[in-house]
Write a structure and sequence with these properties.
By secondary structure, this protein is an alpha/beta fold. It is built from 7 helices and 11 strands.
């Protein structure tokens, strides 16, 4: 394993570290009603951080990203003619679903893995990550909401989670999570498809108390936009066919709730 390089600002061109493309925006034609977000779409690590002191196995695991989530989100976006904002850098570099002051924004440890590049991070580099990863992602999301606010009725964030966490098997397969505004998540739970093929629960395997509602609250709720986070167990969306099938399951369900959802602001 190559230990991450100790890169200093003075060694990079113009004193600026190259983070590459940290956010992607897939726009949609017309007047979209739904905005999709996938914060943890990528496990890419900027070149100046090397491997962050992690093995290839760790960098490819769920600690670095949400495997399968982007594929599901892209299929959903195509079916709903919805814009999609998604991350272009590993959440170990910066977790765009966390505010800068949150310990999990640039974690020192994730499950059993220590993140050496984050442990040794200087205050200057920490600020660089905020300015070059979190801020552009947040700005891109704000811009999409502002551009389409007159037609938008819902924001959906798409995530995946590991079947085994700290050695414990999770039986939940699909989670519907909410932040301050619980209305759409609750409405989905109350009108789940009959004979649902997935074990579906509200606020599992995480909830807002775990700090996962930042995007929902900071962007959707702040703009009086109903919202929901969808968490999918990643063994169910490993292949493109599984990702497409999951989108086929979720989109009609969401559309049905959206059609009956009352107009008005978030609570």
């Amino acid at each position: 394993m190559e230990i991450f390089p100790q890169t200093y600002f003075s060694e990079s061109q113009g004193g600026v570290l190259d983070f590459g493309t940290v956010v992607h925006t897939d726009t949609a034609d017309g007047t979209p009603e739904v905005l999709l977000v996938c914060e943890h779409a990528s496990n890419r690590i900027p070149e100046f951080l090397g491997d962050m002191g992690l093995t290839a196995e760790a960098r490819d695991s769920h600690i670095a990203w949400d495997p399968g989530a982007l594929g599901v989100a892209q299929h959903m976006a195509a079916r709903m003619s919805a814009p999609l904002i998604y991350g272009g850098v590993s959440r170990l570099v910066y977790d765009c679903n966390r505010p800068p002051e949150a310990p999990g924004a640039m974690p020192f440890k994730s499950e059993e893995y220590e993140i050496p590049a984050n442990v040794s991070m200087t205050p200057k580099e920490r600020q660089a990550r905020i300015e070059n990863v979190y801020a552009p992602f947040s700005d891109a999301l704000s811009a999409q909401i502002a551009q389409n606010r007159s037609s938008l009725k819902l924001m959906v964030t798409v995530h995946s989670f590991t079947p085994v966490y700290h050695g414990q098997q999770r039986d939940v397969e699909l989670g519907l999570l909410h932040g301050r505004d619980d209305r759409f998540a609750v409405a989905m739970m109350e009108a789940a498809p009959p004979n649902a093929p997935f074990v579906t629960r509200l606020n599992e395997p995480y909830s807002a108390t775990d700090g996962v509602a930042h995007t929902l609250d900071a962007h959707a709720n702040a703009n009086v936009l109903p919202n929901v986070m969808i968490e999918i167990r990643n063994d169910l969306i490993r292949t493109p066919d599984q990702q497409s099938a999951m989108a086929d399951y979720l989109v009609p369900w969401i559309n049905r709730i959206l059609a009956e959802f009352p107009e008005g602001g978030a609570t």
